[in-house]
Design brief:
It is a single chain. The chain is built from twelve helices and 30 strands. The protein is α+β, with helices and mostly antiparallel strands. It folds into two domains: 197 residues, Alpha/alpha barrel (Glycosyltransferase), CATH 1.50.10; 390 residues, Beta-galactosidase, Chain A, domain 5 (Distorted Sandwich). A hairpin with a 2-residue loop joins β24 and β25. It is globular and about 75 Å long. The N and C termini lie far apart (49 Å).
Length: 623
């Protein structure tokens, strides 16, 4: 079942069955309806809708929260209506929808999802619907053993603990729930002894979304890329004119003061005056808005008037180690429709409260406009923020925003840094080319026009203070072991973590690390603890097909624009990719279905992982 069907047809179908006379035929319809819902809620293969095994929710062949919230209304209502009866859905169907809800509340902070996950609505208005958590909590646990689902009840209580005035301008795609009904459900769960969960903490890598999220305290850092399987942005004739760079390796920090509900406003974002060339984290060519605007066409008989461009690279995505820390890497290659010469290799390394951001091999042939990497672009959304930035002075190596998000630049990147204060900054609206303005500050790293082999290094500390940031700058808590076309490898000096983003299969890896080699591009993280290791391996390639990218080329050898709906492989299951890694020393490993010992001696241990679904696989090793 696709997400639109869950949204628009399930309740009508259920009602039309229930008003039938009580006959064997009615029973037959109920059984068929239950089975239809059940299979619709199970994990779908490839890029098909609606739900994925990793918690993604699909529409238009990508993870798409703005469509998910409508579809989840239908799915949660139907699971609830059928629960406790002979028509209830299977445990796997129920568990899958529960996982989608819990994943959504992880990548949203508190209720809003990041701009990069907004599809064609990058306006900061999309948000999850708390009542869906309550509805599924009322349906009991997926195994049917408990009347109420404790995890979902606790998640619901956290989400409704913030009192908000209803937004009159809320998007029409958001389902509505009355405040009175929300309060009634809150009282019901509290009477059962449930309490609000704390803010989610840890790391999420969403393979079916090309997204990584690191959370600590009240902050969430959301990274997004794109690949040959997952599009970068969705543009319509009347929507998302300028959001081309949304998934060019962006990282948005959603945060606020420790005692307030986190929103786009508290995080320093608004639409007015936002420069669409400068999504934080992205490496882009800074274009005039008329050149940045999407040229939307109807490219084939499978699609409508829309633009959803793809890379031809399969390597893009994240690894999550024990759901605590992780990394993200991507080979960025813009589509030939615009600037097909634009490439970069980008990585993020998540070590608890520190995020190390690296880039190499930044290149394009555009000699007209400059290429830059945006460290931050922040709006003075409140009078306090305005006063803060109006008088702000930096030492050139460190910057800190009013929420205590600290930024540290390496010595080399300092030379390329440009800090701008534009009070006001005049730009264009998300779906309106008329001027809008706001007060903004930006920090960008300049790579010049038509760069070749440019690079950068900076770190973000989303919860720090001026003194701690200064101390960090004197003695950073990480060391870059390798940063080139082959690999970005970073060691955390405080957490015994080493993070590997292997874009290629380099013959030699740094002596300092335990990983000696890998036989294919992959993501690896190793946590050392005396005589124990936690080794995590991920191959971010979803492997919906193998071999070269399925591009079509014009007479000049340029990639032609094609719709995702025309591709023959979009409903394929994710294939298996074997990844063989060699570790220094002799290690014992508890074998799992996905990890086998190939050989071991005093010098080295060779393990083979069977990777699929761009998932992360953890194994524990003992000396």
């Amino acid at each position: 079942i696709d997400i639109d069907t869950f949204n628009t047809q399930t309740q009508g179908r259920m009602a039309s069955i229930l008003i039938m006379e009580d006959t064997p035929e009615k029973l037959q319809y109920l059984r068929s309806f239950s089975r239809w819902i059940d299979y619709g809620c199970r994990p779908a293969l490839g890029l098909a809708g609606s739900f994925k095994k990793d918690g993604a929710c699909f529409h238009h062949r990508n993870n798409y929260p703005a469509y998910a919230v409508g579809g989840l209304d239908g799915a949660t209502n139907m699971i609830y209506l059928l629960s406790g009866t002979g028509f209830k859905v299977s445990e796997i169907a129920h568990e899958t929808v529960k996982n989608v809800l819990l994943t959504m509340r992880f990548y949203c902070n508190t209720k809003q999802w990041a701009l990069s996950m907004s599809g064609r609505h990058p306006n900061g208005k999309g948000q999850l619907i708390p009542v869906q958590y309550a509805t599924l909590a009322l349906a009991g646990t997926p195994d049917g053993k408990q009347e109420y689902d404790p995890e979902l009840a606790a998640a619901y209580l956290r989400l409704v603990s913030y009192t908000e005035t209803p937004d009159k301008n809320a998007p029409d795609y958001l389902p509505k729930a009355s405040t009175a009904y929300e309060q009634k459900l809150k009282q019901l769960f509290e009477a059962q002894g449930f309490r609000p969960e704390p803010d989610p903490q840890g790391n999420l890598a969403l393979g079916y979304g090309c997204v990584s999220v690191q959370r600590r305290d009240n902050w969430a850092a959301v990274v997004r890329g794109h690949s040959r399987y997952l599009w970068a942005a969705e543009h319509y004739l009347d929507a998302n004119f300028f959001g081309r760079y949304l998934a060019h390796g962006s990282m948005q920090i959603l945060t606020g003061k420790s005692d307030e509900m986190v929103t786009f406003t508290t995080s320093g974002w608004q639409e007015a005056g936002f420069d669409w060339n400068r999504f934080p984290g992205t490496t882009t060519i800074h274009l005039p808005f008329d050149q940045l605007r999407a040229k939307v066409m109807n490219v084939d008989t499978f699609s409508g008037m829309e633009e959803m461009l793809y890379s031809d690279e399969a390597f893009a995505g994240g690894l999550s180690q024990a759901k605590l820390n992780g990394n993200f890497g991507m080979k960025l290659h813009e589509h030939d429709k615009y600037n097909g010469s634009h490439r970069a290799r980008k990585s993020y390394h998540f070590f608890n409260g520190t995020i190390v951001c690296l880039g190499t091999d930044i290149e394009n042939t555009n000699e007209e406009f400059p290429t830059e990497t945006t460290v931050f672009q922040l709006a003075a959304t409140t009078p306090e923020m305005h006063d803060y930035w109006a008088t702000y002075k930096s030492d050139g190596q460190t910057y800190i925003d009013p929420n205590g998000v600290g930024y540290y630049l390496s010595k080399n990147s300092m030379k390329a840094a440009k800090y701008e204060k534009n009070f006001p900054q005049v730009t264009v609206g998300e779906r309106n080319p008329k001027p809008t303005s706001g007060d903004w500050v930006s920090l960008v790293l300049e790579h010049g026009k038509a760069p070749k082999g440019a690079s950068y290094e900076y770190a973000v500390l989303p919860r720090t203070d001026a003194a701690s940031l200064k101390a960090f700058a004197k003695k950073p808590s990480y060391k870059v072991l390798q940063q080139d076309r082959n690999a970005h490898i970073v060691r955390s000096l405080t957490d015994n973590l080493t993070s590997y983003v292997l874009f290629e299969t380099p013959q030699a890896l740094p002596e300092e690390g335990l990983l000696q080699k890998a036989d294919t591009s992959c993501l690896v993280m190793i946590r050392e603890d005396r005589d124990k290791l936690l080794l995590t391996v991920s191959q971010p390639d979803l492997a919906l097909y193998r071999g070269p990218s399925d591009e079509a080329f014009d007479k000049d050898g340029k990639r032609m624009e094609r719709s995702i709906y025309s591709r023959p492989w979009i409903d394929n299951d994710s294939g298996e990719i074997p990844v063989t890694v060699t570790l220094k020393g002799e290690w014992n490993v508890a074998e799992t279905p996905y990890c086998k010992v190939i050989s071991k001696d005093k010098q080295q241990t060779v393990l083979q992982f069977t990777c699929r679904d761009a998932a992360s696989f953890d194994v524990e090793l003992k000396k």
